[in-house]
Amino acid sequence: MSSSWVVDVDCPEPQAKVEGWVMDMEKKLEDAEPPAKVLRWPKHCIFRVPMRFKMKTVEGIVSSVFKPQTVSLGPFHHDDKELKPMEEHKLRAVRHLLSRDHAGRASKLTLGGLVAAVQKVADELEDAYMDLGDEWRGEKRGKFLEMMITDGCFLLEVMRTTAAGKESIPKDYAHGDPVFSWYGIQHIKPFIQRDMLMIENQLPLRLLETIIAVEDGTCPSAASINSMVLKFLEREDAPEGTGLGLHPLDIYRTSRLKGASQIKSNKKVHHRGLPTTPTAKEVSVVRPERVVPRSAWKLSEAGIQFRPSKTSYLDDIRLHNGRLYMPKVEMDDSTAYRIHNMMAFEAMHVSTGNDVTAYVLFVKDLINSADDVQLLERKGILEHDLADDDNAVVRLFNSLTRDVSKNWKSQLSQVRQDVDHHYRSNHLRVFLYEAWSNLKNKYFKSPWTLLALVTAILLVVGDIVQAVYAVISYDPNEKGKPKMN
């Protein structure tokens, strides 16, 4: 049989051709890792989501949990056609912000002054975005500055309008304003909240800090900016001393974690004002051992009692005296996109821990069926308002953990080991419980079967009692005595 895939070893390529290939390859190797790009890697905190993450979403929808639906914030979705209607409202926000009198300023705030201030931190803002296109850099930086100012002013105006309340909304907006009136903000707020938590749709909080500093004539505290963002996202304030968040998704994630909050309160600020989240070395973790995952029902059979923790921090999980304390979590249609984006951020930002991912993997092991969901609901651990039944929760966690590495170190590794040790040390209890469960499922499904079994047991017990009574009442001396007439 002839084949076209034949190499003629007797006819080597000309030496000049080989040298040309080598030179081309060497050039590619030189360009493969430019030093300037490598230096920017640690500063990146806003990313495009790789396709491998987008393929594992709920109900087969490829990218909806990572894609903004109402407003673009930052460069990655700036040119999305469906988000263009919000651009005119961004410009209105800038206009209103510039037209107001600001108490901390001796002179009127001008667009030129605002541009100059943002220009000073432009390098930091650009470095926050990984794979920022050339259309935003160099001679085209003006386009980047315009986008930063319009997006930043818009977000500030939205958050301030929400915080002001119905009676204190700025009077310079019309009563029927579709966005910045009381009616408008109540309608659009949930959609902006959603888009603010998309990892591809982030604004550095350094930008908001710069705009506010120009407005007020003094630099605002990190706590005030974090608090403003978290209040808009309907979360409690970050712990006192927490550094300025990287962006809304970062500070939201921090507010959900007890460990991250404690570490951030002591961390230093890097990169000329842009703080970093805790590294793996900063978090006390335990090397994970092989632990067999067991459902909530299995653990309950081993005597483990589920109790709600005193806080809502996702990593506030511990085993104490046979009681597994876990935070109460309310799940609804927004849960999928919130968790997906926090997990994606943990996977792509090298200085961030994996605490949210560890929590999701922990809960996924507990929830194998609707029965497990119902058990956690009864114990006050879980509450959901999903459109489907309890199986929707099972499907959600299966989707969240698809293709996720389960060998990472985390603060929950020790809890896993403690739970596993408790289960293995209660083999007899588990065996008896499983035997009783099998007996109940096999013989007690019908009330008539149960009634027949109880009747049979009573008859057997009656026969035993009668036999025992006969033995006890038997007197051998009575046998030889003559009968009395």
Describe the 3D structure.
It is a single chain. The chain is mainly α and 485 residues long. The chain folds into four domains: 154 residues, no CATH class; 48 residues, no CATH class; 131 residues, no CATH class; 45 residues. 50% of the residues lie in helices and 4% in strands. It contains 20 helices and five strands. Strand 2 and strand 3 form a beta hairpin. Helix 4 packs across helix 7. InterPro entries: DUF247_pln. It holds the Pfam family DUF247.
Give the CA-based shape.
elongated
Count of structural domains: 4
Spatially, the strands of the biggest sheet line up as 1-3-2
Stretches with pLDDT under 50, minimum 5 residues: 1-7, 263-284
How much beta, percentage-wise? under 5%
**What structural class do you assign from the helix and strand content?**
mainly alpha
InterPro entries: DUF247_pln
Keywords: Membrane, Transmembrane, Transmembrane helix
Pfam families: DUF247
Transmembrane segments: 448-474
Short description:
By secondary structure, this protein is mainly α. The chain has helices spanning 15-32, 35-40, 51-54, 87-99, 111-120, 122-128, 141-164, 182-196, 205-216, 222-232, 248-255, 258-264, 296-301, 335-348, 355-366, 370-378, 391-400, 413-424, 427-443, 447-473, and strands spanning 305-308, 318-320, 323-326, 329-331, 382-384. The chain has four domains: 67-220, no CATH class; 221-268, no CATH class; 296-426, no CATH class; 430-474.
